[in-house]
Amino acid sequence: MAFKRDTRKVIIILIIAICLVTGCEKIPTQMITTESIDKVAVATISEIEGSGLTGTATFTEMDEGVHVVIEIQGATSGLHAIHLHTGSSCDDIGPHWHPMEVPAGTSGIPVVQAVLDTPPIGVGEVGNITVGEAGMGILEFKTPFWSLGGDPNTDILGKLIMIHETGDTFLTHPHAQPMNMQTDINMETVQPHFHPPGTPAHSHTNTQTTIPTILPGGGAKIGCGLITLKE
Ligand SMILES: [Cu+2]
């Protein structure tokens, strides 16, 4: 009998302990589920014409804008321009996304550098990503100029994220005009350089035959991904 009573005591203590533990677990679970969950969009970036580039982009909507992480692999080291295009798929890229109708020839800065007081040249002019020797690059920033499903002038859902073979100057809008290789090779030096007094006259023509590290528009397109809401 004494043994049975002891066993009962142990069982009751066990039940109380389990209830206590379960109860403790329930409190934080309920707190988490009542918190608002961030809206997240993603894009899987695939190569264009055998470039070998792959990557992912994640866009998390927060109170003050969208937090962005873009990761690419298999690219040449150096700068690569990133834009948002308006096409329906990576087979139908379309022009740069410029909902604000920025007048052609406007100077400015890309989205990565822009803050509320200093808006970007266009909401589709994202910025340059830096790729290291291993062919990998990460660009992380937060912007108040984008939303996930908000105002059409800020909504990045359904846009195409485009990676280019060189960096972009982001100096004038628009950059979307097509450039053939001959134009690229013979184009003027695109990075402004300082002329101290007494500098002898010299040509600004870029005569190099390799692809420059930075071009207006970023040269050929090498990677593309469609931005969609994460389920
Ligand atoms: Cu582009």
CATH architecture: Sandwich
The separation of the N and C termini measures 59 Å
pLDDT under 50 segments (min length 5)?
Answer: 26-34, 175-193
Counting DSSP H or I runs of 4 or more residues, the number of helices is 2
Considering the protein shown, what is the CATH homologous superfamily? Superoxide dismutase, copper/zinc binding domain
**Tell me, what is the CATH class?**
Mainly Beta
Largest sheet data: 9 strands, antiparallel
Number of domains: 1
**Which topology does CATH recognise?**
Immunoglobulin-like
Structural category:
alpha+beta
Mean pLDDT equals 79
**SSE order in H/E notation?**
HEEEEEEEEHEEE
> Which ligands does the model contain, each kind named once?
copper (II) ion
Please report the total strand number as a whole number. Answer: 11
Q: Which overall shape is indicated by the principal axes computed on the Cα atoms?
A: globular
Helix content: 10-25%
Give an overview in words.
It is a single chain. Mean pLDDT is 79; it is low at 26-34 and 175-193. A hairpin with a 2-residue loop joins strand 2 (54-62) and strand 3. By secondary structure, the chain is an alpha+beta fold. The chain has a single domain (39-188, 208-229), classed as Immunoglobulin-like. Helix content is 17%, strand content 29%. The protein has helices at residues 2-34, 181-186; strands spanning 39-47, 54-62, 65-73, 78-85, 125-131, 137-143, 160-164, 167-168, 214-215, 221-226, 228-229. The strands form two sheets. Strands 1, 2, 3, 4, 5, 6, 7, 10 and 11 form a nine-stranded antiparallel beta sheet that branches. Strands 8-9 form a two-stranded parallel sheet. The structure holds copper (II) ion. Copper (II) ion is lined by residues 83, 85, 96, 162, 164.
